[in-house]
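Protein modeling request. Please complete all fields; requests missing the sequence field cannot be processed.
Requester role: graduate student
Desired output: 3D structure, token encoding
Chains: 1
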Amino acid sequence: MKTYLPSPPLQPFIQLYRIIESRDEKVNRVLPDSTPAIAFRFKGQLRYIEGEQPAITLPASVISGLRNTVRLINYQPDTAAIIVQFKVAGAAAFFKTPLHELFGHSVSLDHFVNRQQLTDLEEQLSVAASDAQRVLLLDNFLLAQLRFPKQDELVLHALHQIHAANGDVNMKALATAHFISQDAFEKRFRKVMGTTPKQMASIIRMRAVLQQPPADRNLTRLALDAGYFDQAHFNRSFKQFTGLTPTAFFQAPSFW
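Delivered output (256 residues):
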């Protein structure tokens, strides 16, 4: 796996590009996160696995919205893709469609971008001589898609407070602190972030849990510290989020 920074004009919105190549078949466990992502496959095949359902072959260019469950991405042999990892609220700068409509879904990017432009990019990525050339192609493509460079400061400030509290925030109090009704706050937040403030807080809370595995394996204390009222509720939420029990996950955490 290799990572690259976007060009300076894109850095307020995009954290990095991640290039993943696989000679052999493998499955990546991708946990819920606080930003959408775009994947451009330039070689091989990618499949999406959900539960016991048959694997679904993904389009060459796909955008994935936020979700509250783990996703398994199957890389077929000799497959490569470049992933656009947005910064918080960064994706909203590129798309007119409210991002909450993507929640829980992975769809072809041609729902949002001109099909011919996308086809041209896909062909150029597949024949590029190096990853550096691919990054340059992607930079130019995304700069052309940049629509709304001014970010919503109210939403960003509220999100900062949710992160600072590791997701343990009262949403009514948060809206009041920003001098806005709870309904108006939730609509504004959902449009920019792709989910409700409450759901975002749940994602941030569980992400915080994963960053501090219990040294003594005291899962009850971990659950209580994270704001869960009982172990059973924590275990259900944890398995939905990671696909594994807490004990199994912390024995060998492997995700991104």
